[in-house]
Amino acid sequence: MKLSVLDLVSVVEGGTVRAALDNAAAAARQAEACGYQRYWVAEHHGMEGLAGAATAVALAHIGQATTTIRIGAGGIMLPNHNPLVIAEQFGTLAALFPGRIDLGLGRAPGADQRIVRALRKDTNRAAEDFPQDVVELQLQFAGDPRVPLQAHPGKGADVAIWILGSSLYGAQLAAMLGLPYAFASHFAPDHLDAALKIYRERFQPSAVLDAPYCAAAINVVAADTDAEAQLIASSMDQAFVALRTGNPGRLKPPVPGYRESLPAPARAMLEHVRQVSACGSVTTVRAQLAAFAARTGVDEVIVAGSFFDQEARLKSLRLTAEAAREPVAASVVS
């Protein structure tokens, strides 16, 4: 099973942005040592508890800390930006870390409606232009003469473009353009199966891919025991509830019995949004990862998750890689 990592670069309660970025770099080193395929950072804005807003800058820090693992955006919210600027940023990263750069592109704003005013642009119109902007980025990296202003750095850069999605739209676009596709099932599980089906059925071969190549994200917390993993995961549970109730903040420490303490509506919301998860010991995570891979048939499984304790995070990455390396009995998967 091929594994990759999606990092929100969480800032913990009592911590600093610098510590969050250093923790991300250390986690990327661990992922590299454990054989993960790629390490992605997501763009979010206006959130005190997330430090990946300047995604290309964060990736430069992570790139300096690693040597072989692919690094990239999971993703850049393209409606927020001019394609030329993104071509320059990721062209620069490709020059610094040749053969290692991914550019995952999303159509969402990466924030609430305040981002519209802050960016001083019509992000709704920009979202409508998303397909054209993706093509423009492809042309920029190819050095196509039809682009009126070439990106330098950027022209001729070796950057792998992915389309990201949490609905059916991205699947259709990725299929039409013949690009790799990644689905955000770690927080938006409802359309997972339908999106992958559409992507595979409608895929058109391109200069990039001869056949569909897809990934899907799953929340993973691995620990020595199921009980310990559930306790560690309560930090992520608190973050989901805080976000969905309009009160996001820094990542909080684990709370014993957190889910059981929630009122029924909040618990139901949390269980729904976290239904694509693997949480427990190596044995438990192995079975849950195998079931997810069997359900989706994806080429890569993207490991997501927020950890208050850095050592627990590094251990989870190691144990998850161990779980993915060893086969699970077919009877367990079924």
Please provide a written account of the structure.
- With 334 residues, this protein is α/β, with parallel strands linked by helices.
- It has 14 helices and nine strands.
- It has an eight-stranded parallel barrel, surrounded by nine helices.
- Strand 1, helix 1 (17-33) and strand 2 (38-41) form a beta-alpha-beta unit.
- Helix 1 runs parallel beside helix 13 (310-325), helix 7 runs parallel beside helix 8 and helix 12 packs across helix 13 (310-325).
Q: Layout of SSEs?
A:
Elements: E1 3-7, H1 17-33, E2 38-41, H2 55-65, E3 70-77, H3 83-96, E4 101-106, H4 114-119, H5 123-128, H6 130-142, E5 159-165, H7 169-177, E6 181-183, H8 192-202, E7 214-222, H9 226-244, H10 258-261, H11 264-273, E8 277-280, H12 282-296, E9 300-304, H13 310-325, H14 330-333
Parallel strand pairs: 1-2, 1-9, 2-3, 3-4, 4-5, 5-6, 6-7, 7-8, 7-9
What tags apply to this protein structure?
334 residues; alpha/beta; eight-stranded parallel β-barrel; 15% strand
Short description:
Helix content is about 45%, strand content about 15%. It is of the alpha/beta class.
